[in-house]
Amino acid sequence: MKVITLGNELLRQKAAAVKDINGEIKKIAEEMIDTLHRQKGVGLAGPQIGLMKRIFVIHIEGDEPRIFINPSITATSQETIKYEEGCLSIPGVWANVVRPRSVRIQAWNEKGRPFTMETEGILARVILHEYDHLEGVLFIDRLPPQKRERILAKLDKIAVGEGAPGTG
User: Fold this and answer.
1) Which of 9, 24, 130, 162 is catalytic?
2) What CATH number does residue 13 fall under?
């Protein structure tokens, strides 16, 4: 699987519900986890691979890989925390993002079984980041406007440089 990057319009679209949790979706989830490992990331959502379905996978060091299908966030804490985030779809960019400290999420696993999870810290942050992808939201959208504009300008400058003749 190839991870699509900023500029691809699919990253800005809302993903559709997975209609049938079957062997095919389980295989896709397994391939997403393999891709996540190859890319050395901690989370990967369907839209990041061009799959406009409500599915994401997470694998944080010290935890088992987790699959979330048709998730919904049912609660977040009022308490927030700022922490540095990056994204496989915006390589090389890191910025401090303010997010709720904890989250409660309902979803289905790859076997079609519903579950509810309450968590905090890094796992909560990754869940919220990946959930945003299903809504067409990127972590840079959570930054103050001036910071986001500086990042986008820097990325535009890099993109222009890569396309310039003789830059190889």
Assistant:
1) 130
2) 3.90.45.10
